[in-house]
User: Fold this.
Amino acid sequence: MVFFVSLFYSKFVLSLCLFGFVIIAITQDGWKIAPLSTIGINLRENKYVLFISLVLLGVLFSGVNSSNTTYWIHHLQLKLPFLVLPLAFANFRFLDKNLRQKIIKGFLLITTITVIHTQFLYFSNVDYYNNIIAQGQSMPTPIQHVNYSLILVFATCCTYLLYRDTKEKWLLFIGIAFFLFMHMLAVRTGLVALYACIFLVAMMHAWKYKEFFKVGIVLLVCAAIPIIAFYTVPSFTSKIDYMIWDLTQFSRGNTADYSDGGRMVSYKLGIDLFKENLWMGTGIGDMYDQSLIWYKSNNVSFKGKVNFPHNQFLFSLASTGIIGLVIYQLAFLIPFFKLRLYKIPYMLILFAIIYISFLVETSLERSYGIVFFMFFFLLWGVKTDKDKQRNFLASEKSI
Assistant:
């Protein structure tokens, strides 16, 4: 519970939780340090999970052509969870289906509290928040609004997946509440991920239960929700109106301090920096300095704010080149396919969310997004003693 609260409200406590995971992982009964041989066996059994640590290797590699070591070290610290958490979770031998379900319920409880809190702030001054949304800003959220919306997407899908296993009806109520709240929150990245994941979950349900007609009706209803929201939810209407206005300004060459216009300029920045060094990029330590030089030289409306490319693939290409991008993708795709995580609905949804976010955000450059992904990835990615026992009993039963 403390971990989930800190995920939304405290970076400091979140750092302490990561340290706590390591302590729990290397100790046994009575808080004795586990033998190195035991830790080594656990790591070997979870060797494919450890491939995710290649993300940190990509940052280390980028130090070769980074002259700004301060900024390079900053990125190393940011990516440390990709090393620390896999090493810790590989030694968690107590995870099983029941515990995972309890963890998901705890996650949903804390997420529900954050939704209530955010709604309270919004309704305390509706006109003000609708006005700032109409100006391209967002309503107050516990963490950066895009990251928050993506976490909500995962929570919404978890309500259905958990209901399918437990048949607890309160989960459906919470899921519907999250779904409706997403439209009031009106974060476009989150909404795109939400509908993509709903389609994915619907297809999984239709395939498993052969209820294609029912699923089709549900998808048609979901498709109508954004239209209804446009005419009934003020914050959603304001967001769409601003998006249309913003794109109109960009088409006229006005990009200063505009959300979508600035996003388009950031794409050009990423492409230009990538072209200068195809294989190794600018060096992730020099990414800010090179971006600042580019903005001063190419953007007549530049007012001092550097926007990195709003695309993780493009950011990786610009900062670490083709070599860095390949390393990052291997880090994600090797565990996904070698561990057959695509057969686990929670993991299929999680990877869908993170890859959708890669298209419009630099998700690997934000600590909250990194820790959120790593926690749930490892929750199902690691192989534990109880997992092995369950597989053995299943094979005995089949015999």
Summary: The two ends are 40 Å apart (CA to CA).
